[in-house]
Amino acid sequence: MADYPRHVEFREEGPREGFQIEPRIHPLAARVELIDLLSDTGLRRIQLGSFVSPRAVPQMADTAELFQRITRRPGVRYTALWLNERGFRKALATPGVDPDARLLFYCSDAFARANNNCTALEMRERQRDWVRLYKAEGLAVETAHVMTAFGCNLQGPIPQERVLDEFRFVLRLCAEEEIPVPALFIADTMGWANPESVRRMIGALRELAPGARIGMHIHDTRGLGIANLHAALAMGVDLFESSVAGLGGCPFAGHGHVRAAGNVCTEDAVFLCHELGIETGIDLDRLILAAIKAEEIIGAPLMGRVMHSGGLDRWRRIA
User: Fold this and answer.
1) Catalytic residue among 107, 152, 250, 273
2) Is the pLDDT at 251 greater than 50, yes or no?
């Protein structure tokens, strides 16, 4: 029996996920237009870009300017990603950035080295400093993401117990620092999950942290993104990170001929929720317009299905 939530929150990551992996830097004005369209859909959190090394990810070098150019909508949080203290300080110094205090953990040493130039264990220990830094700045830790939670293109399969060990550390750290347990995000960074492994992982995490809110960050590398999202919905998960039109992917997550596909497509996921009678607070028609704009900017067909076929509401209105 499915245990669907009544309402689901989607946190949009397309403007960062999508454009950080593109081989060319797309015009700032076009990205501003996309963000403004997303702001009018009912989404309540949009990740615009990242404060990272411009040498490593030149596509994100103008993130500070991007925050100055958008039209802010009441009730919408505009966030950014950072991977080190320099990026964090730059984000705090940029007007218009809504701080998103998150903790990041890896289950794959290979991916940790590629993404953060450290081992997974070293990254784990760094999170102690992040908690204290956030506390010093008056920020509450909002999320803890455990990445490569099902497998890694650079290293191979990841045992479930390895993932749970990272979440155990999160719980111990929160107890030691006397802070509330944040939302716990299971991140299928490279698309290794399947619906059954998703159900098992969520069930095990619920047993470990019964009072915690669980979120999922799902990539669609091998075409199971929407199926995995449905499995999470059936387990009662009500928080997802997603990407308009299926934009994006991590620039360090590819391996050989395997390209790191973007997050599960926002408009496809919203369509699924609406078909299941789950509220999202999102206007699907407006979201489709944003997805079409994203495809126009990229200049190539994108992963989304509903953006090309349309939803079913207009047919119901006719009927």
Assistant:
1) 250
2) no
